[in-house]
Amino acid sequence: MPWIDPIDEVAHLDLYSCFGSSVGFATDALGLKATDSRPLTVTGGLPFHGGPGNNYMTHAVASMVENLRENPSDSGMVSGAGMHMTHHVFAVYSAMPGAPEPPDEATIQGRVTSTPRRAIRNTATGMARVVAYSVMHSREGSEWGLAICDLPDGDRCYARVEDPELIRAMEETEWVGQKVELVDAGKGVNRVEA
Predict the structure, then answer these.
(1) DSSP code of 188?
(2) Are the CB atoms for 132 and 163 separated by under 8 Å?
(3) Contact status, residue 94 vs residue 75, Cβ threshold 8 Å
(4) What is the phi-psi region of residue 29: left when phi exceeds 0, alpha when psi lies from -120 to 50, beta otherwise?
(5) CA 125, 131, 136, 141: dihedral to nearest 10 degrees?
(6) What residue numbers bound the domain in which 64 lies?
(7) Contact 135, 142 (CB under 8 A)
(8) Pairing label, strands 88-94, 75-81
(9) Which residue has the higher pLDDT, 166 or 80?
(10) pLDDT tens-digit series, residues 79-122
(11) In this structure, what CATH number is given to the domain that contains residue 146?
(12) Residues 13 and 60 in one domain
């Protein structure tokens, strides 16, 4: 019996189509031939659906769901691509539920229980390392930043970023892992100095 490529078993496709090249990349990666009889979109394609940034993927998934409700024994695949074709997503859908696989609750709980807890400190000064951060924006642009920092003793704290130069740096370069200095900004607020 000849081997069948799994993509041959997918009845419906919606390949992300911000540019012709994105469709070409997807068809090449999936090994789809130019003679393939399946349409490459169930939605109509992004150029006919408002352009990039207008929530096309949600509409592609919704169109695929409608297709699979009409053809419940089929499967369908939706693909997406991020900026500059550097991020890709593929999802395969079916109207037929798979076999349930309940989680092993004891194993999961064991992992949770064995994970050390970090104390959250309200106030902290001195050296710290950024483990996560975000920059808040208004209509006028970046306003302030928030950093979650690990302290040398293993505790964790929140810290506000107010300096415009630091905020700009946080938007232009990766700050996870950066060492920063925390100062007391008053009223229980820690502030990142740099």
Answers:
(1) T
(2) no
(3) yes
(4) alpha
(5) 100
(6) 7-94
(7) yes
(8) antiparallel
(9) 166
(10) 988 767 777 889 999 988 878 888 899 999 999 999 888 899 99
(11) 2.40.50.840
(12) yes
